Amino acid sequence: MLAVLKDNVPGFAVIRRLAIRFQSLLLHRDEKKLEPWLADAKACGISAVANFARTLMVDIHAVRNAVIEPLSNGQTEGWINRL
Question: pTM of the full predicted structure?
Fold first, then answer.
């Protein structure tokens, strides 16, 4: 299925590589890889990915903290959204 997507969907391989890199930097809490990822995402030529990277840059301090900190307020936010 991946081969079919890579061959038939323009930009799929680029998006996939960026997604895997982003997942890896979050999993390994590697803040040093965040800036290069953001630069690559903004320059990738896919507007949705570039917009996502620009949006992350708006509050880069919070994004950095989310990468390096082991704690999350995700559960709290989920409950607030349900309310």
Answer: 0.80
